[in-house]
Design brief:
Elements (H helix, E strand, L loop, with lengths): L9 E4 L7 H13 L5 E2 L4 E2 L3 E4 L9 H16 L16 E3 L2 E3 L9 H11 L8 H15 L3 H4 L6 E3 L8 E4 L2 E4 L5 E3 L1 H10 L5 H11 L10 H16 L2 H12 L3
């Protein structure tokens, strides 16, 4: 979160922002904060075209910061959500990831997390791919609709997710990790962890070890990282094109025997 005036509030604005663009961000921040886990920035004010947030003075993270972040993230996830695909508490309707619409569902979908992930996280973004890429993602969606445990792993309760947890949204402040810019929703906790790995995070191995100690992960979770990274790669393909579409296609093909 850059600022040319340290210790003054940070103002995010977007001219012509769609309805709810900053409102759902504020709701997500408050919902994550209510979990009592990872620290998040607290909205100072929110309007139709801007949100005002506290400035976070940053420093390089230490190994102990990483340990504390992993344990705190586990507490956030454990706080749970009503169902997979639920919006953050205090919000109804859809959200956003970056500048793209992010579908939510007001009720649980038949088929659990797999159908939610296929229908609301993969299918809406496949238009960015060529025909071969779309077929590859559709094949993954078929496995998700079938509830194939070899792909999805064992059932998990809905977790309270940040939803866009790449390294740029983890700020390292005076008191450790602080989260910003969520796409918060109810989902699978492995999604946040896979996003941390997608673009790298300092001391990630320590974060994951501390998380697993606090909230043990299901066996084979490392084999499912690719599945959970497919959605953010499709988002990047939609936003930026280029090699992201090729990467998403290759990943989708790797998930279909």
């Amino acid at each position: 979160m850059p600022s040319s005036r340290p210790d003054e509030p940070f103002r995010k604005s977007r001219s012509g922002a769609p309805d709810g663009f900053f409102g759902v961000e504020a709701a997500g921040l408050r919902w994550l904060a209510a979990a009592g886990g990872v620290s998040v920035v607290e909205p100072l004010s929110v309007g139709a075209a801007e949100i005002l947030l506290p400035y976070v003075r940053q420093r390089p993270p230490t190994p102990s910061d990483a340990d504390a972040f992993g344990a705190a993230l586990a507490r956030t996830h454990r706080a749970g959500a009503p169902h997979h695909g639920s919006p953050p508490g205090g919000w109804s309707g859809d959200g956003f990831i970056a500048t793209l619409a992010l579908p939510h569902t007001p009720v649980a979908l038949d088929g659990g997390w797999g159908r939610f992930y296929a229908d609301l996280r993969l299918t809406p973004y496949v238009a960015a791919l060529d025909a071969a890429g779309r077929r590859a993602v559709e094949a993954v969606c078929e496995r998700l609709h079938d509830g194939d445990p070899a792909l999805t792993g064992p059932p998990e309760p809905p977790a309270r997710l940040h939803g866009d947890l790449w390294s740029g949204n983890v700020l390292w402040g005076d008191d450790g990790a602080v989260l910003v810019d969520p796409a918060a929703h109810g989902g699978h906790r492995e999604t946040d962890l896979a996003m941390l790995a997608l673009f790298g995070l300092p001391h990630l191995d320590r974060v994951l070890a501390a998380y697993d100690e606090a909230y043990p992960l299901a066996g084979g979770w490392r084999d499912r990282v690719a599945l959970h990274q497919l959605h953010p790669l499709l988002v990047h393909a939609t936003l930026f094109g280029g090699g992201y579409g090729t990467r998403a296609t290759a990943l989708a093909r790797s998930l279909v025997p």
